[in-house]
Amino acid sequence: MNGKRATAFVPGHVTAFFSAHPAEDPAAAGSRGAGLTLSDGVDVTVTLVDDADAADDSPVALALNGEPATIGAVGDVLAALDVRARVTLATDLPVGAGFGVSGAAALGTAFAANAAADRGRSENELVRIAHEAEVERGTGLGDVVAQARGGIPIRLEPGAPGHGVLDGVPAHARVEYVTFGELSTEDVLAGDTAALTQAGERALSRLRADPRLPTLMDASREFAERADLLVPEVAEAIEAVATAGDSEDPDGFGGSAAMAMLGRTVFALGTGLSDAGYDPAVCHTHPAGARLVGEAQ
Ligand SMILES: Nc1ncnc2c1ncn2[C@@H]1O[C@H](COP(=O)(O)OP(=O)(O)OP(=O)(O)O)[C@@H](O)[C@H]1O
Ligand SMILES: CC(C)(CO)[C@@H](O)C(=O)[O-]
Prior knowledge:
alpha+beta, Ribosomal Protein S5, domain 2, Alpha-Beta Plaits, 4-stranded antiparallel sheet, 9 helices, 30% strand, globular, binds adenosine-5'-triphosphate, binds pantoate
């Protein structure tokens, strides 16, 4: 066992709306759209494994909150960096429910493997490697670049650094969320995305004209309906938050909830879900992007 290890933290990311932009080159493929990065995220620890200790040819043994798991993009990132490792993910976020856990796992693995194995790659190179892996696995299009940036990212042009262009909504907010279950990103992206992309482009125009959080939330609600992605439990919660209104909310965000893409998840600003009688998880928008948090021999 080599034992060298490093840990990275990657914020969660809920997409408020998006349009899909496939391309042959995975670095050029991606999405336009906007979302919130979250202080709830994923701690990714990469521990190097000697060739002699590896049980088989696979570059990775992955554990998610202590249980064995498979996230294809993680193995692809290690292969791209020519690293064999054990990867452990620790997170409070639900998986497969619209929080970008697969993107966080890929990006955190890139940062931590580069540090543990001293690969000498730059941040843009590591973001590109993670983005390509995520796109090729069909588990996300824009989460990685958003999670590398932090804040409230607007994805103006799709793709990895060198292709994509990012902006942001200059704001900070308390965020509440409730998850009713998973929605497969792979299935939605593999289907017909024409209506979704039209709705996503419209939402982006609205946010570019008025880059404020209430507009982001409103554009997100309209997108979910137009793209026909709204699921009944989420629609009910959005309605309940709107009905509970804004009188109790010191941040002035009362009544504002939307659906996280792509999951059976509702997120709200301020105290929207608590005011509506739900028992949400609570976090904040995250001011910064993915970062290394520790290295050890
Ligand atoms: N316990 C688990 N539940 C769901 N998916 C899991 C689990 N363990 C591993 N996975 C893998 O994690 C990945 C989840 O990716 P998916 O893109 O659906 O969700 P996500 O990244 O959490 O959210 P988003 O919808 O924002 O992309 C898949 O590759 C799936 O195979
Ligand atoms: C496709 C997606 C909604 C999956 O979470 C996300 O990666 C995005 O916004 O591109």
